[in-house]
From TrEMBL:
One of its GO terms (molecular function) is O-methyltransferase activity. This is Caffeoyl-CoA O-methyltransferase. Transmembrane segments: none annotated. PANTHER family: CAFFEOYL-COA O-METHYLTRANSFERASE (PTHR10509:SF64), O-METHYLTRANSFERASE-RELATED (PTHR10509). The lineage of its organism: Eukaryota, Viridiplantae, Streptophyta, Embryophyta, Tracheophyta.
Length: 177
């Protein structure tokens, strides 16, 4: 992750923010330094689950929450060149069928040397399951989208990637050009 030190303000974005619960350690680090988070989520109630904790920690002023579907919000940001190359770290944990659409936009918004993280890139282990494996309906539905994302990230020369086999798999993409 670039520029999250004590003196350099870090700018972080999350697509599919929910409540700060899962990504706790990362946020704690960003918020304890002088970073800020732009949090996008279609559902304000999810944000409000974590809000009391955020307020108790005295960091609510560092989180800019925007409610709505992420794609149009990202399109607005891409249209505004002042957002280009402006984020140190972007974490995506929302609707898996849009990850590739998010990547097409986020690559302009993250700075060179910055990182985009995609959650669930092992997708319940289903990516290596045989075609006739008994998968839950939602796992089967999103499987092809996650496969397509993984292939696209591996072929994308604008990023260097590494897949962390923790939880459901996180792919980190460092923008190199
Ligand atoms: C798995 S949760 C995110 C968990 C979060 N990363 C955490 O650590 O607590 C997925 C979130 O994505 C949001 N979401 C789903 N589709 C979305 C969309 N099209 N645009 C924005 N947010 C969306 C959901 O409302 C939900 O809060």
């Amino acid at each position: 992750m670039a520029a999250t030190g004590e003196t350099q303000p870090a700018k972080h974005q999350e697509v599919g923010h929910k409540s700060l619960l899962q990504s706790d350690a990362l946020y704690q680090y960003i918020l304890e330094t002088n970073g800020k988070i732009l949090a996008l989520d279609i559902n304000r109630e999810n944000y409000e689950i974590g809000l009391p904790i955020i307020e108790k920690a005295g960091v609510a002023h560092k989180i800019d929450f925007r409610e709505g579907p992420a794609l149009p919000l990202l399109d607005q940001m891409v249209d505004d060149v002042s957002f280009h190359g402006s984020f140190d770290f972007i974490f995506v944990d929302a609707d898996k069928d849009n990850y590739l659409n998010y990547h097409k936009r986020l690559i302009d918004l993250v700075k060179i040397g910055g990182v985009i993280g995609y959650d669930n890139t092992l997708w319940n282990g289903s990516l290596v399951a045989p075609p006739d494996a008994p998968l839950r309906k939602y796992v089967r539905y999103y499987r092809d989208f996650v496969l397509e994302l993984n292939k696209a990230l591996a072929a994308d020369t604008r990023v260097e990637i590494c897949q962390l086999p923790v939880g459901d798999g996180i792919t980190l993409c460092r923008r190199v050009c």
